[in-house]
Each structure stands twice: as structure tokens, then as C-alpha cells.
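Field: COMPLEX_INPUT
Field: COMPONENT_COUNT = two
Field: RESIDUE_TOTAL = 904
Field: MODE = joint
Values follow.
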Amino acid sequence: MSKRDKRPSHHRPVQPLTSPEESRVRVESLIASGNTRGALDLAKQFFKEARSTEAEALVIAAYEARIGEMLAQGLYDEATALAALVGERFPAHRHRIVPLVRQSKAIAAGDLRPLLAELAAAARPRRQEIEAILTRELRDPRLLADADALAADEPLRRAARAVCDLFAAVTSGPLPEGALAALDQVSRHSPLAPWKLLIRALDAYYRRADGVALANLDAIPPHAAPARLVPVLRHLIGEPGALDQRSPAVGALIKAVSGGRTLLRQHLLRLGRALEARDPGTAVAAVERIMPLFDFEPVPVKRIFTATVLQHWYRLNLNLTPLVEALRRDRRDLDWQRETQRLIALTLERAGAWEEALLFWDGYLTAATRAGTLPAAGRAPARVLLHMAELFPAEREAVLDRFCVASEEDLEALIRAGELPEYLDRGRLLARARRVDPDPRVFQALVAHWATRDPRLAEAEAEAWRQARPRDLEPLLHLVRATERRGAHRRALDLLDRAEAINRVHPEVRQSRFRLLLASAERRIREGRFALALADLDRLEKEPVATSGDTSAYLGAVRSVAARRSGDGAAAVRLHEELASRLGNGTMLALILSSVAESFGLEPPDAPGPASPAETVQALARSGDLFRALDRPLAVPPALLARVEHDLSGASPADLHSLCVGGLYMGRPALTYAASGEGLASDGPLLHRFLLARGRALAAAASRRERDRAVLCLRAARELAGRARDMDAVRDASSAIDALARPHETAPWPLRVPVADTEPLATEEIARLITAERARRQVPTFTAEKARRKRQRAPRRPQRDLFDDFFAFLKKNR
Amino acid sequence: MLGIEETADDEAVRAAYLAAVRRSPPDRDPEGFRRVREAYEAVRDEERRLALRLFGPAPLDRLEALLEAMPDERRHVGPGPWLDVLRGDR
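Field: COMPLEX_OUTPUT
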């Protein structure tokens, strides 16, 4: 007896027998009610007592029913064993038992034909038994739809055809509207009912109506054949732990349907958990499993994954070698090997490890151009070279410190001697970029690079730019400025003529012309050629620039100097009086006259009398604007500056903004700080400009805390400027933020301060920041000028140790 | 998102963008349209495509964001693989 038979029976206990007829009726009644075990017990008791042919027939009928029920319950082994026993004990009835055994074996093997043949003529309860078997064993509705044993119009066969067609349709594409109505002919007692639920679940799954899909899956009886797909579908929907075991067929189905994404999802979650637990072994194992799955995904997805995992790995300060080995698992895929190199370079540069990033960029560029992935010349390699040049720290001393050299010449000598790689020479990188693509961006970078190092080379590059692209205005403007600076005014004017031939009304062209004429006038005054100087000044007054702002006042001040130098004191006094009446501000007049006189080495005129705070503020604001526009030095008495910084009450927003900009121009961040504070005190259209000025002033502060404040102010300014469509302010804020980026002192990797956080500040955060800045009255300590650092041997950086391992690995694998 | 090849030109990118907008019109699927627009902005001209190819992609803040960016695919594979599972454990 099987274990199942030992379970407590829920059928009614067998009653004592009274007569053969009654026994027959009761046995048949029990069989009809489905209590085959009770019927068999009763029949066996009757047979034991009667030993008649009638009793034997009754016990055989009971055995048949019992075996049929066992088959209906899927107890094929038990049914086969019982049938064998009955056949041995009642050989005369073996012909009745053998088909049952055969049927049992056929069903166990998935062959439903004998059962279906029997179904055609079966009456209840046998029909119910057969339907129960079909519910459990029908693993393909086509077996029923194509069953010749059933008449073509047999309702069950007709329903099976509908199920068959819908199952094929729902798994092959979206079902048309109303297609599921064909399932209405399947009753909930039909052996096809679980299939109906499965088709509905599949339709909902493909429509992404996961709730409906799950509801239909829940309704599928666990013993029904389609129930085998329930955990698979749950798994595909994303239910964690739905699938305990995975057969090859299940694995193939999941991969085919989800394109491997379900598996990818699992491994990604595992990787995330491993990284959270700082468990590199498990994380690498997850990466090893994930990488082959990306063969089914678009390449950009693989790149995003690689960039992301590298970034996380780097932040956690884990050894890169095993990760890179896992990422570059397929050694034959050389394209991907190069891509990995590029992605590592990007990771390193994001973390501020510029030198290491340069190494990887150089490796990538060499390999990619050699393989033809990148052309040897043209925009792409030039962009990479430009990008490499941009990775160098803005502070040249940081580069020199890194290689323990005193000057860029020393660094170049080491590169020439082969002690350092060529890519560490920024100028050479840019020159390479120019060779492969003589593009304005490359020339612009080259001119900017040399402008602060070797102005002659900057001029030469600007000249090369002009030769390569004669219609570009920018190189001409640079050349005008450069030649003007070294006193070659005739050459400067010649270049200016060319610039004007391209664009006469360009503001910088006009400004250049004005500046050149002004310089000419000033030079002639110094040389004592007053008539020529006055002629220059006459021409200057006719220039459009002369009519803007207080420019004419400056020209008047120059005229007064000419008068003084030529000994015409009366004319000088007359000019002073004219200027005083034009400006209406004695303090401003004094500032202009004294600054211009000082630039000619003359004694300044007498100091003006006491002025109101408002007049002083306005004088400084307007003078600052004027001298900044003309690129001339403004000499401000320290007492006047201090007075303005301490009393800005009543200043207009425009004046406050001028003072903010003027303070930065004069190298006086305290003035900018004070003016921006006053500007921030009230809302207005210049609020973002005051935040920008506050951020730029704080950037010059000595303490880290103030510099962190600067970052916040600049981010808020950038956000507000973007909303106000003030793109100049957006650019200024962004470049100030970039300039503030510096190596993090505590991180194991030289991560930058959180300025890389590109998330815009929320309105509430900005409002909180403005409130906080309004409340800050104390002026921070500013570093007047960064003291030149004494060159010291740079300490060995901690991440280098981590890289040693990695570089050794790379050398082995490159 | 736009389903374009890396070598696609401006015209192909524009066509893919318009097709994606038809699938996610701004009035009916604003979130989908936002993603489509973002993707288009990143690749709309050759300069941007070159920048993305050379200096992209940006890493995601969280690994899980990769999952969010990759909604599970639900491919129609016909009845065969499903029936194989049903028949498989005999």
C-alpha cells in the first residue's frame, strides 16, 4: 500500500452487508459517487462472504473503478502495480485489467490516445475520471484538438481547437481586440479550463497588465498541466524567488522571451549587493556572469554598465585588476578591449586622476588609430587629443609638483630624455591635434595654451590659424592684442584693418580700434607730439565706443594730461571744469584724473572734498566699469575702498553689480563680497548675478569652508541664470565651478570635491542658501595673492600603490 | 531608445526620432516623450554623436538605474518554447 493510501480516509465507513442485491446496489452507488476505495472494501467483503461469480464480477468492477481513480489522481505506478496484482489473482478477468495497465503506461509516457478513444464513448463517472486525467496530463491542447477518436463537432474537441489556436496566437504576437471571446466556450469544469486561464495570463503578461496576469495564474489549479508554467511566468513578471528549479527548457524559454534580461536583472542585483557589502569576489563573479549576457544587448548598454561598474568600483577603492579581467573576458574582441581602455580613462578622469587617465587615453588613441577604429587624421583623433590636453590641472604648479620639477622647461627636458612619456607635454598634444585637424577649436586651445607661457608662440599659432582660416576673426583679434601689447601699433593697425574687412561692427573690433587709437594718443603725449595726440583724440571722440558710458570722460582726462604736459595749465583747468560738470560726481572726477595722471607719471590733482556715501559708491562703480572696458588700471585710494565696503546702503542694484565685477577686476574680493551681500539683501532680476559674484569672491577665500560655500553659491547662480536665460552668467558660473575643483584630501582616490555634482539645486535649496547668505555679515579672510609655493618633492600618492598592481597587469595584457 | 546604429547620419537620426515620437507622443506619454527627446538631443548632430562616441557614456549613479533604463523585454517566441517546458519534465 502506498503512503497515499495510509492517509486518513474521508469516505464514509463501509456498512455491514445484508443481502447480495443490496451489496451490489451499494457497491455501484459508492463507485458512482466516486468513493472507489469504499466500494472496493465493500466488494471484497461481499466476495469473501459469498465467493460467487456475481461477487467476483462485483469485486472486479470495484478494482476497475479504483484503478481508474488512481489513474485520475496521477498515481500511475500504484495503479499499474494494483492492476498487475488483480490480473494475477483473477486471471479470468485479466482482459479487463490489461487495458487499464496499458492506459496507465501510455498516460505516464504522455500518450493520451487510448484515453481519448475511451472518452468518446465513456459515460459518467468514467468521463469525469478521464477529464480529470486530461486536466492533469494535457500538456499540449493540440493532442485533444487533433484527436480523431473524438467527433469533429465534439464540444471538447472544438474548444480544444480554439484553445490551440489562441495559445499559438498569444505566444506569437499581440492578440487582436476581442480574440479572447473564443475562450467563452470553455467551461470552468472543462479539462481545458486551466489552459483558458493560462492564455488569459499570457495575454495580460504581453500587454504588461501584470496584476491581471498574476490573478489568472493564481486561479490555475496546481495539479493542472499548465501549472508548470505558473512559476516561469511569475519569474518573467519579476516576482523574486518564483522559480526554485530551472530545467534546460525553462532556461531556454526565459532567455528567448526576456532576451536574457531577467537573468541580467538577477545578476545586476547580486552585483549591487556585493558592492554594497564590499565583497569583490562575489562582485567579480557577478560581472563574469553579466558580461556574456550583454552579447544580446545593444553595445551602448554594455558601455553604460561598464562605465557604471568601473565608477562604483573606483569609489569603493577596490583592486581594479580582477574587475578589468572580467570586463575584458573575451580577448579576441579587440574592439571591446579598446573600449574598456577608453572607459577606464573616463573613470579615472572623473575621479581627478588626470595622469593615469592620460595614460589610458594615449593607449586608446594609439590602439584605435592603429586598428582603424579612429582615423589617423580628422576631427575624432583631434577631439581626443584636445580632451587629453584639457585633463591637465588648471594650476601649472600642480603638474610640476606631480613630477617634482621646478619648471615646465625641466618637465620638457625629462620628456625629451624619454624619462617621461610624450603625452605629458600639453603643448605637444595640442600641436598633434593641430596636425591631424587644423580646426578653430584646436587653434583656440593652442593660442590659449601659449598665451600665458610664451606669448611669441601664441602669436605664431594665431598667425598659423589666420593663414589656415583667413576669414576667422578670432586669430586677428588675438594678433591685434598681442602686437598692441608689444608696442607694434602700426602692425596692430594693419591687422585691425583686416579684421574690419571681415566684420567692422563686431564689438571687439570696435573696441580694438578704440584701444589702438587711444594707445596711439597716449604714446604721442608721452613723446611730446601733442598735436598728433590731439588729432588722435579728435578721431577717438568720433568713434561709436566714445559715446558709450563714461568713455568721453576718460578721453577728457587724457586731453587734460596733454594740456598739462604741454604747459597749458589754463586749458587743463578748463577741461577739469567741463568734466566736473559732465560727470556730476567730484569723487569720480578725482578717481579718473588721478588714475590717468598716474599712468603718465604726473602728480594727481588735489583730492576732492568730502562726499556722501552714495556719491562715493557711484564714483567707484562707474569708474570701475570705465577702466575695465578700456583695460586701463584704476588707482583707488585704500581709504575710499574701505569706506565703500563698509557703507553700501542706498546703492542701486546696477551700481552694486558694477562694484561686484569691479572688485574682481581690481583683485579686491572683499569689495565683491560686500557688494554682493548688499545685492542679495533684496530680490530682483540681478539676484543670480549677485550669487555668482558672491561665489567668485568666496572662491578666493582662504578656508575650505568658504570655498565650499562658493560652490553652493555658484551652483545656485548657474541654476537661476539658466532660468533667466542669462547664458553668460551660466558660463561664468560653470567655469568658476570647474576652477574650484580640487583633489579631495581624505579620499583614497583623488576624488574631486562635490562640484562634479551636476544635479541642479532645487528651488527650496536655493531659497535656503540665499537666506543663509543674507544672514552672513562677517567678511571672510581672503588670500590676497596665492604665495608661490616652494617646490617640494611631491609625496607619493596613496592610489599609486593600488595602480602598481593594475599597471603590471596591463603591461602583461597590452 | 531611438534604435539607431552608431553610424547613423543626421537624416536617419531624425527619422528615428520622429518614429519614436509617434510611439510616445507628448500629450499621451509625456514621460516617454521626455526620454525620447533626451536621447535625440544627445545624438542630433554629428558633433554630439562624436562626443558621445568618444567621451560617453556617463556612468549611472546607481547600478539599479541600469535596470530602470532597461525595461524587461517580452518577446513573442511562438508556442514551441512554452510547450517544451510543459513536456520537458517527463
